[in-house]
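tool_call: predict_structure(chain=1)
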Amino acid sequence: MERENLMLLDMKKSDKLNTTIPFQMVSETGIISVPFENLDNETSRTLKANLDAVAPNCKNLIIDLNQVKFMDSSGIGIILSCQRDMNKKKGELKLCSLNKPVRALLEMVRMNKALDIFNSLDEAIASFQPKKIQ
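tool_result:
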């Protein structure tokens, strides 16, 4: 499946947050790759602004957390907000590529019960493909 590569520029004034957040489309699924090591109060605002920009154009959304090594309650809040937005439009949100501390945090607050979490981006993308009937 061909991926359409798009790049979003954050419009924040802070040099620290003047970050390009990679975004791709695979069919009707948007993929946003979080480029921050820490998903905290400051970087969560940047992610939220970018999610708000791309989510309306996506039936489904995958957030790739491969680079995130630390997440606080702000990051959890952004993910829950995004999930609510996707549910309102009958879409799905999936997370992928979590490292151990981030996965442990999400399991501790039981978000793994509310969200689909995949080990890799390819697994998350494949989960949106229709199942083949044998």
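agent: Helices lie at 41-54, 73-88, 100-108, 111-114, 121-126. Proceeding to next step.
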